[in-house]
Structure formats: structure tokens, C-alpha cells
Amino acid sequence: MEELLSRVDYRIFACGEEIFLKIDKEDLKTKRNGLFTRSESGKVIADGFVTSDDNVLLSSFFKAVGSIIEYTVDHESNLYLPTELGVREFHSGDLCNGKKAMLHVIHHRVETGTDPWSIYSRIIWKEKDHILTNNYGKVPPGDCFIFIFDSEDVLERPWPRCASHEEALATGELILEK
């Protein structure tokens, strides 16, 4: 068994609106071997022993909090997001501002081998790209995932970042690379 200590930030947007997940900390203690017990809205903190490779996927965290964020190789997507107002659902082909929408995932990866550290941003499509790794000694700021359910033209707009990245960019601790 491998021990994991990881932190990853995330934000979720649907049709231009930021969605905040409702996280039940008591429920997290019993799911996924308590790996995500310390997590909070906007942050995934994995701390414990990994008993299965499935537990190191970011999707395992979302399942543990009662969410589903999935997309298939043919870019079909489904989102079930528990919020304070109930479960919100979004599916490929739903309309956002009159246009067909789908899930877009942006990964802002922090490269710690430079001084100052750099952020590299890319669009990702594969579930295996969402693997949690031992990085807690290097964060904050850590990697940031932005989940955007919207029409394709959303990618032509400036991409949102996580608060930890905004703070580190303002202080010069991070620089933005393209």
C-alpha cells in the first residue's frame, strides 16, 4: 500500500455560472477509506493509504461527495452535482445560451522545477489525466482543474483559474506559461 498526501484545487462552471458543491464531511469519513476527509469546497485533499488504483483518480473524490463528472472518449459528458439547492444535472447536448454544450476540462499544472514556479495550461480529455499524486510538500499552490460545461466557444474566452493561482501570480510566486 502506498501513502498519498495530495492537494488539488478545482472550480466548476455550467453555462457561465460557478457551481459550488455541497460537501458532507461526515460522509467523507466513511467513503474511499476516508482518503478525502480533510477536503473542502474547491479543494481536494487526499491523505491516507491507497488501497486501490481507482482511489487516486480525481473522479473518486467526486464520487465520494456524491457527484459525477464524466466524459467518454467520444466527448459525451454527464454531470450530477450536489449543491445547497439540490442536485444539478448537465448532459452533452443541453443548451447554454441557445448553443449545444459539453464538458471542457482545463488543467492548470504547476511546474516546480523553475524559479519562480510556472503554470502550464492545457485542455484534457482523458480520465487518466486526473490522477492525484504526492504533491503536498510542493503546495499551495498546486494543480488546478477547471470543469466548464458550456458551448465550444467558451474555450476562446480567457480561462478561469483557482484562487490559489491568482494569489501566487499576484505575489510573483508563479508565472503563467502558454
Inertia-based shape:
globular
**Helical/strand content category:** mainly beta
Order of helices and strands: EEHEHEEEEEEEEHE
Give a count of the beta strands, DSSP E runs of length 2 or more: 12
What is the makeup of the main sheet?
Answer: 7 strands, mixed
Structure, explained:
Helix content is 11%, strand content 42%. With 178 residues, the chain is mainly beta. The strands form three sheets. Strands 1, 2, 3, 9, 10, 11 and 12 form a seven-stranded mixed beta sheet that branches. The relative contact order is 0.22.
Keywords:
3 helices; mainly beta; seven-stranded mixed beta sheet
Short description:
With 178 residues, this protein is mostly beta strands.
List the SSEs and their pairings.
Layout (H helix, E strand, L loop, with lengths): L1 E13 L2 E3 L5 H4 L14 E8 L7 H7 L3 E4 L5 E7 L2 E6 L3 E2 L2 E2 L1 E10 L5 E8 L19 E7 L12 H9 L2 E4 L1
Parallel strand pairs: 1-11, 10-12
Antiparallel strand pairs: 1-2, 1-3, 4-5, 5-6, 7-8, 9-10, 9-11
